[in-house]
Design goal:
heterodimer; A: about 375 residues; four-stranded antiparallel beta sheet; 12 helices; B: about 325 residues; alpha/beta; Rossmann fold; globular; binds adenosine-5'-triphosphate; binds adenosine-5'-diphosphate; binds iron/sulfur cluster; binds magnesium ion; membrane (chain B); cell membrane (chain B); ATP-binding (chain B); nucleotide-binding (chain B); Oligopep_ABC_C (chain B)
Chain lengths: ~375, ~325
Amino acid sequence: MTPMEPTGAVRQSAEAAVQASIVVPDVALEHRRQSERRVALAPELVTIRNLKMHFPVIEGALFSKEVARVKAVDGINLTIRKGETLGLVGESGCGKTTTGRCILRLEHPTGGEILFDGKNLVDLDQKSMRALRQKIQVIFQDPYSSLNPRMKIGEIISEPMKVHGTEPNKAARDARVAELLRLCGLDPKFADRYPHEMSGGQRQRVGIARALSVRPEFIICDEAISALDVSIQAQIINLLEDLRDQFGLTYLFIAHDLSVVRHLCHRVAVMYLGKIVELADCDELYGNPLHPYTQALLAAVPVPDPDLERARAHRIVKGEVPSPMNPPRGCVFHPRCPLAVDSCAKIVPEFRELRPGHWVACSVI
Amino acid sequence: MSRLLKIDSLQTHFFSAAGVVKAVDGISFDVNQGETMAIVGESGCGKSVSALSILRLVADPPGRIIGGSIRFQDRDLLKLSDEEIREVRGKDIAMVFQEPMTSLNPVLTIGRQLTETMEQHLDMTRGQAVARAIELLGMVGISDPERRLRQYPHHFSGGMRQRVMIAMALCCEPKLIIADEPTTALDVTVQAQILELMKDLTQRLGVALIIITHNLGIVARYADRVNVMYAGRIIESGTAHDIYHHPHHPYTLALLRSVPRMDQPRRARLDPVQGQPPDLSRLGVGCSFQPRCGFAIARCASQSPPLERIDGGDHLAACFEAHSVAESMARSS
Ligand SMILES: Nc1ncnc2c1ncn2[C@@H]1O[C@H](COP(=O)(O)OP(=O)(O)OP(=O)(O)O)[C@@H](O)[C@H]1O
Ligand SMILES: Nc1ncnc2c1ncn2[C@@H]1O[C@H](COP(=O)(O)OP(=O)(O)O)[C@@H](O)[C@H]1O
Ligand code: SF4
Ligand code: SF4
Ligand SMILES: [Mg+2]
Ligand SMILES: [Mg+2]
């Protein structure tokens, strides 16, 4: 095989690699399922009721008037339990980020309510909101544009602590920065560096450390790993899982990669044109998707196995997502739906619980 | 099948004040007529620079092709005059990029962009070119092509612009299309539409396709042969079946292991590749994957493994421990 014999120590590392590469035993998966069952009984942390975010479209410079409305989020209902990771998936522009921004109060919803620990965020005054904002943090997609290039990593991570006054003392803040960097798999020496001196994966770790600095309960991850390379993605997914277990965090995990969502989430909500069309436990949603749109999404993902892929028929949904400015009447999916019947263009389907915990907005199935 | 393109020891480096970036450092591969070949690897490993090098589109300075040959049919593309390579670009080899907006001219109508190329390269009259443009738009699934011809790129969605790019790529009946991350900016459903369209058209017209992507699922579905790149080199090459079911390079194995998969039971934990890709301006001696490799042996730090045949076949890997890797794969599946 190899002409040169490896030394004992390195040989062992090759052996270890072979050992480590053997698939994780089911015990671990069972452990995970147990935690999922626990989560299912936990109290609700976030409750979203009939949330609407309609953006006005303004035209005219002098006598500007509203000519249309973009229905970015159009009456969605969701609950997220303590300790749960809820996945939110759907095609570009369907309203995932807007939903997250409403929870963060970066947008003022045009309707509905968002309860966090029982308090309605929508009509909370500035002062009480500030106190709550500490408990709700966000990790963005692009770790580059979300970190201030002129600030050192240490300053970036301690900024939320200053804003919320959680660590008034500088020495305590510095100690916490070092602890957070270590927690997120970075050398504490990085505190003195600038964002441009770090790789994408490292910057995303900084974004996570920053979100964690004020000990939040709930973190919105908006495409938090989408911009990263595959090999780095897995590192960050593992980190997010470890932190969730260690601190009992609750996540809203917004993503378009359906395999990552399946790996990480307890429950998954599928969005289309501002509405939630299906919601179910992760295994149920992937094993038994009921809404034609969910089925189309899942069918469109090629899996990394050439033999399987070549044997699989591709039923591809036609067309593209219509503009949210002028969404189709009746069921918003009807122009693309392979199952559509005449009534679909007239009747807005009700969001129904077809099986325990499995909700679908389709009047045909 | 006859050979269309043969790349041999191609090297493209960038020369900057900070040093030399060895973006492509000695890659070799062939593409046969009508075949779909994939180049897969993570960002920055040299996929786009490889593609641009084939058409001599790398900006010089700072980039320069410093070695190797690119034979297309019977000509060495590196020896052609500027005039001749321009002719090849429009006619024999077409390119489809990730972001169609940057490759479409925003102030020209879609129709004009299509007809201009055809008038230039195919000596068509305006009328003939318009008729052909309508036919092409229909072929790539754009409805109402007569009306669409008169519109501008900003009237089109991302998916439709990519369809226009494919129509443009097809208009001079090229023998090879190079698609660099053609669907990375698109949603999964539109991605599937575009890829199926490309597969269907290339098969029907017998056009060869080089598809560049980081998506292992896309490669599995569409590629006949696969080249895996890491740090400016091809580290493994073979049929899709070889690469996915019998990987012989630790990096290929690690890539396959690190992604969560919908075709398999959920795993309790992912198995990431540790560390990060190397800086291409600071590559040392030895194997470029060595700092992240769980299979490394002593010589990996001092010698660079050549890309060699596995068991005398068409499957190639650049690893001193290729057989341990294969064993590990076999044991775990
Ligand atoms: N401030 C705004 N004014 C007007 N329209 C907006 C505004 N913010 C978002 N929109 C529109 O609302 C819709 C939903 O946008 P949103 O960013 O929530 O989508 P998304 O699901 O996060 O998409 P992506 O997957 O691309 O991130 C889009 O059509 C978008 O153009
Ligand atoms: N114009 C340039 N100047 C300097 N370096 C470049 C330039 N273009 C690309 N590179 C470098 O070449 C390497 C390969 O880039 P590229 O081929 O674009 O990667 P990818 O595999 O993501 O397509 C990277 O290290 C990149 O930074
Ligand atoms: S209601 Fe009709 S159009 Fe909507 S998803 Fe169901 S079948 Fe399709
Ligand atoms: S040559 Fe050595 S370091 Fe490189 S991939 Fe093979 S075992 Fe790993
Ligand atoms: Mg978004
Ligand atoms: Mg590229």
